[in-house]
Amino acid sequence: MAVTDEIYGSLETAIIQASDATYPVLKALTPETTGPLANKIAKLLTSKVPAEKLATALDSTADTLLSIPDDKLAKFVATVKTSYQDISSDSCQSIPFPADAANVVLGSEAVSKLSSEKVQQVAGKIAPLVSAVPASTGGICLPSKEGLEQVWIGQTQLVLSIPTPIKQQLAANIAPAAKSIPSAELLRLLPDAKKALLGGVDRKEGFKFQDAGVALDKALKQDYRFKSFQTN
């Protein structure tokens, strides 16, 4: 029986509320706070996770992206384009892109172990999506608040379109890589993460962001369609 990708009821409400709560957080992000955090995460991934485990997780991620049905991806690309309909790259609110951190991961031993053919396939697969997002100086444009809601709903539908065995394999392959990072190292990241994400918003918006995240997590766990992410 095919799994429907329709988003409705409490899940739709939780997604929209999480999107709305995330909007001011994204709007307040700066390269000065997100860059150092991203660099620390990249360093953890490339220094604490064995190259073989990280390569396996990245390879599984590539398989997951390639498994998305073309028609579902095309629908999401159309949603993204609509969300940016009135946004100009010359004057938009920018979300910083951590280029230095990305380059650290891309230059890692783990990435060198990936099939170049598969990497090219992924690049071709997501090229229309990348083209649909307007680039700004040092990052990408933030869509309107309503546009972001549609992107969140659309990306949730995209996840549901991925075949269940592929999602289960992804979860199983990411787990060993994640467990390779010492808990103490992750705990040391928490203050930096809080500063990067919530340092630019007031306390009320910060609490709203955290509460919405908890509510969304609960809604996803209550939806049977997301149980495929669980491993045996």
Spatially, the strands of the biggest sheet line up as 1-3-2
- Binned strand content: under 5%
Oligomer status: single chain
Mean pLDDT: 94
The parts where pLDDT drops under 50 for at least 5 residues are: none
State the shape.
globular
What is the structural class?
mainly alpha
Question: Explain this structure to me?
Answer:
The protein has helices at residues 9-28, 31-48, 51-67, 70-83, 99-106, 109-112, 116-132, 145-161, 164-179, 183-198, 203-222; strands at residues 94-96, 135-136, 139-141. With 232 residues, the protein is mostly helical. A 3-stranded antiparallel sheet has the order 1-3-2. Helix 1 (9-28) crosses helix 8.
Offer a quick outline of the entry.
By secondary structure, the chain is mainly α. The chain is built from 11 helices and 3 strands.
Q: In terms of topology, how is this protein built?
A:
Elements: H1 9-28, H2 31-48, H3 51-67, H4 70-83, E1 94-96, H5 99-106, H6 109-112, H7 116-132, E2 135-136, E3 139-141, H8 145-161, H9 164-179, H10 183-198, H11 203-222
Antiparallel strand pairs: 1-3, 2-3
